[in-house]
Amino acid sequence: MLSARFVQYGLGPIGIGIADLASRLGHRLVAAVDIDPAKAGRPAAAFIPGAPPDVGITADAAAVLNAGADIVLHSTQSRLAQVLPQLLPLADAGLAVISTCEELAFPWYHHPVEAASLDALARSRGVGVVGLGVNPGFVMDLLPVILTAPCREIRHISVTRIVDVALRRLPLQHKVGVELTVEEFRLGVAAGRVGHVGLPQSAAMVAHALGWKLDRIEESVEPVVGPAHMVQGVHQMCRGIHGDVGLISLDLTMATGPEHPRDEIAIDALPPIRVTVEGGIHGDQATYAIVVNAIPRVLSAPPGLLVPTQLPAIAGVART
Amino acid sequence: MLSARFVQYGLGPIGIGIADLASRLGHRLVAAVDIDPAKAGRPAAAFIPGAPPDVGITADAAAVLNAGADIVLHSTQSRLAQVLPQLLPLADAGLAVISTCEELAFPWYHHPVEAASLDALARSRGVGVVGLGVNPGFVMDLLPVILTAPCREIRHISVTRIVDVALRRLPLQHKVGVELTVEEFRLGVAAGRVGHVGLPQSAAMVAHALGWKLDRIEESVEPVVGPAHMVQGVHQMCRGIHGDVGLISLDLTMATGPEHPRDEIAIDALPPIRVTVEGGIHGDQATYAIVVNAIPRVLSAPPGLLVPTQLPAIAGVART
Lengths: 320, 320
Known about the structure:
The structure is a homodimer.
Chain A: E1 5-9, H1 13-24, E2 28-33, E3 57-58, E4 71-74, H2 80-92, E5 96-99, H3 112-125, E6 128-131, H4 142-147, E7 152-164, H5 170-175, H6 182-191, H7 199-210, E8 216-225, E9 231-242, E10 245-255, E11 262-270, E12 273-278, H8 284-293, H9 295-299, E13 304-306
Parallel strand pairs in A: 1-2, 1-4, 2-3, 4-5, 5-6, 6-13, 7-10
Antiparallel strand pairs in A: 7-11, 8-9, 9-10, 11-12
Helix pairs in contact in A: 1-8, 2-3
């Protein structure tokens, strides 16, 4: 199996999980970046159990550009505007990148200029850059696209994802508004603190793969309200529309104790396809794995800002 | 959308369906091959509604090598030994090939020498050759592999496929033994006339993608016996084994009127994944579509004998 030399950029819970799994699968951590004063300056192994003892964490991203890495595993923020200043120097230094930045999974629709800039830079430096994760990056976009392989006359694609966040980490519960009042929830949505980022990117990625031109992508973010009017989570809907026709419908609930957690994909086509993932593909573990499993695919991909649908099948691993 | 110039090689029910769909999607049929005396010499349009009126059917495959095609859509037989003499001259002439030959989907395990020969020839001529279909080629191999993307610690993969052949074409019903006696069924299996071809290839493809070394692949073919001891179809099981450990289990029933037709994929891993395709991905229509949808992917793939898992996502089409 291929062993890559990697930089871990971002040591939040997701970044730590990614770096730990990558290390245990035989990839070598050569540098780690985090601006948190509680982390910078300390050994990476203090946070990443599988990290080599000699790698320290630095707050200075420029310092890792010459660390001899093949690839950067990047996990900092959700918005393209936030991460672009972090990613451009990496690509410029000839480093491949896999990022969990949600908007990077398919930035071409909402941020075509920024996407084209990053793409041109990555091409010129001969490296692949891709945004990947479970959602966006798999369950509401790549997987539905793959399920269209045996289809013709595709009229509509809908994906329903219902996640029980009760057993997930606390930051995720806060991110979907658990235990807020409805007013606090709405303020949080307006401020960008509450809600899932990525549904419009998933809709745009599906449309891109199928050759559909979307005139607009609509999204709604509503609270799931429980007893005593407390918020239990978020219900987001996103529609991809051409003319007056809805082509893509994404329906995401992330809340404590929803009924029948699952992922459901329905393709209205010839033949019709209806797929249920019982319990859903859940957990941060899945995000760690898809990022690490993609390393060989991204390193051997043609250079540029890649769409997950442009990669060959990302296979999982048998042992850690 | 890319428009390819294609040869249709084999005008059985599947070949006709493929060529018709390809034509209606804007690809151009430039030659057609079939050895059936009832077809050779006649216009292709007599059998393929969407075919151009000026293309005839020839029994002489050598005559189509210089027809100016980009790709050959090949649908003749199930066994590699049968199709290899047909495929080698095509690759040698610099033609890409998508074939529904079941054993071609992953010939590396059972026929490594033949696979390596075809691979070397295709590489030297700069063309991609791939075996594709719904099964093998998608539901019991490519799709399970793709579903491992978010997984680590994969211990076992099982796929159950239950197909109701009552509504399918008669040749398929005969192929799975419908209305034979048990003795006729067993004679048919022994003679290679009865049973589904491809389960061992699917098991080998899954193992290859996951980096599993299989020591052996076992297969059983049993009749599904109904009232009055008549055969209603076939039940085939295939196991991929390493040492004493079963890693892959494929369970296929193709019969008239089975309970709850479906495809089911279970991945014993972290996280575990359990997927049901309600009703299953069924129908020759799905085979036509996956072959035609793969044309752009195969034409832009690196040259050689390709595994379906090495292609980027094959997206379906919206209109025909």
